Amino acid sequence: MIIQVVNFIYVLIIQALRLYSFIWFIWIIISWLTAFGAIHLDFYNPIVRFFYNITDGIIDRIFGDFRSKFIIGMIDISPLVFLLIINMVLPRILHFIYLFILRLIRQMPL
Q1: Best label site of 26, 62, 63, 73, fewest CB within 10 Å?
Q2: Axis crossing angle, helix 46-54 with helix 56-63, rounded to the nearest 10
Q3: Are the C-beta atoms of 17 and 11 separated by less than 8 Å?
Q4: Are 83 and 25 in contact (CB under 8 A)?
Q5: What is the value of pTM for the model shown?
Q6: Bridging pattern class, strands 75-76 and 71-72
Q7: How would you write the pLDDT of the chain (110 residues) with one tens digit per residue?
Q8: DSSP three-state, residue 83
Q9: CA distance 49 to 1
Q10: How far is the CA of 62 from the CAs of 13, 57, 93, in angstroms?
């Protein structure tokens, strides 16, 4: 029973990371189109504001002043670096934590 709950939580977190990665990918495309003047975003729109807060707002908190080092010309590659971290590093860390929890559960006396 406990193993199924842990497995469900693990799958839920991985799926949430995939959804967040998809949102990031869309936001990266939109931000590049905005940078090149192809589209204009209205930042007073609540939907645009929400997506800005869950994407760029988090990057500003994580990278801080170091974010300016990731700007090449007009393109900010810090979202790509963050997307790579989300897709390559976090799932591996979560998998190790998941395996560790499963070993702990199997060693528990009944």
Answers
A1: 73
A2: 30
A3: no
A4: yes
A5: 0.77
A6: antiparallel
A7: 888 999 999 999 999 999 999 998 888 888 888 888 888 888 888 988 888 888 888 888 888 888 778 888 877 788 888 888 889 999 999 999 999 999 999 888 76
A8: helix
A9: 41
A10: 20, 9, 18
